[in-house]
Design brief:
Belongs to the iron/ascorbate-dependent oxidoreductase family. Its cofactor is Fe(2+). Pathway: Alkene biosynthesis; ethylene biosynthesis via 2-oxoglutarate. GO terms for molecular function: 2-oxoglutarate oxygenase/decarboxylase (ethylene-forming) activity; dioxygenase activity; metal ion binding. With 337 residues, this protein is α+β, with helices and mostly antiparallel strands. It has a single domain, classed as Jelly Rolls, CATH 2.60.120. 29% of the residues lie in helices and 19% in strands. It contains eight helices and 14 strands. The strands form three sheets. An eight-stranded mixed β-sheet has the order 1-2-10-7-12-5-4-3. The termini are far apart. The model has no long low-confidence stretch (mean pLDDT 91).
Length: 337
């Protein structure tokens, strides 16, 4: 890659990943090579050609709208817990760890998180390990079919994410299954987001400029728009909705894993459309117990990795604890007791 190309873009490219679901090795490798180019130069792309039905994507969006339309007292029954599952009220996070901008105002959104399902009797939950516990679900009587809709979608997104993990491995010249072990018990988040129309105010964002923490993000947008990606010239490039696509981007842990060969690109959301915006990012990350060290294939001969190895769980918790208001409040209460 020509170093001058990194970050030099004016639109987000589209990649048809249908070959990843077939057995034509040549087409798979060609797709992986194109993916590598996009991850090295932009860190963002639209993923098309996947088999996830539009009806399943739209069913999640409709479920999201139904949830956020509930009275505040009903949503509050699912208030986000110590395991980072549940409802985060409006303006409940401020991205203080942003390396992109000095952020002082909370994000203008409300959301609900569903992570990888961990039963209350699972050894990880019984041991009190971070972020290990059951999801919180709305009352079936209030939102019939909600859980079934979400769980079907999470399964489909997990399959797509694993296809992308293997394509990333191939793109680096590694065996396709070389990264699989890091995702045997993946850390996953499905975050349903509701962005009301925001007022014109300096420093106010639906989602302030930031980079994602993890491995990859796969985002389904509605037709409102508002997502923007920052290029090296400092321009914010729109990432408008593309039918039947997911916006995929590199997270910080993948950038770190690749020794910054792949770029974790700043992005933001500003909703000044005059309409409410709904989005559903799916975050696919390694197991909390996996140590992430720079891949040797990404470290030039005679040089040292840019980053020390890190336990993914420690890395993730540091960022969550700093950016979410309810975590900071709990930490303050613990320190005072």
């Amino acid at each position: 890659m020509d170093a001058q190309e990194r970050g030099d873009f004016s639109e987000i490219p589209i990649l048809d990943v249908s070959p990843l679901y077939g057995d034509d090795e040549g087409a798979i490798r060609e797709t992986a090579a194109t993916l590598r180019r996009y991850l090295e130069t932009i860190g963002f792309l639209y993923v098309t050609g996947h088999p996830i039905p539009r009806t399943d994507v739209e069913a999640v969006r409709e479920a999201s709208k139904r949830f956020f339309a509930l009275p505040e007292e009903e949503k509050a029954k699912l208030k986000i817990d110590k395991n980072f599952r549940g409802y985060l009220p409006f303006a409940g996070s401020t991205i203080v760890t942003s390396s992109v901008a000095a952020v002082s105002k909370p994000n203008q959104s409300e959301s609900i998180f569903f992570m990888h399902e961990v039963g209350a009797d699972d050894p990880r939950a019984l041991a009190g390990k971070p972020l290990q516990g059951p999801n919180q679900w709305p009352d079936e009587a209030a939102l019939a079919g909600f859980r079934e809709t979400i769980e079907r979608y999470v399964q489909e997104m997990g399959t797509l994410a694993r296809k992308m993990v293997r394509a990333i491995a191939l793109s680096l010249g590694l065996p396709s299954d070389s990264l699989d072990r890091y995702f045997e018990q993946p850390t996953t988040f499905l975050r349903l987001l509701h962005y009301p129309t925001q007022p014109q105010e300096e420093g106010l964002f639906g989602s302030a400029p930031h980079t994602d923490y993890g491995f990859i993000t796969l985002l389904a947008q509605d037709n409102v728009g508002g997502l923007e990606v920052k290029n090296k010239a400092g321009d914010w490039v729109p990432a408008p909705p593309v039918p039947d696509s997911f916006v995929m981007n590199v997270g910080d842990i993948l950038a770190r894993w690749s020794n910054d060969q792949f770029v974790s690109t700043p992005h933001r959301v500003i909703n000044r459309s005059g309409r409410e915006r709904y989005s559903q990012p799916f975050f696919f990350d390694p197991s909390m117990d996996e140590t992430i060290a720079a891949l040797s294939v990404c470290v030039p001969a005679g040089t040292q990795p840019k980053y020390e190895p890190v336990l993914y769980g420690d890395y993730l918790m540091e960022r969550i604890d700093k950016n979410y208001h309810y975590r900071k409040k709990k930490a303050a209460e613990a320190a005072a007791s």
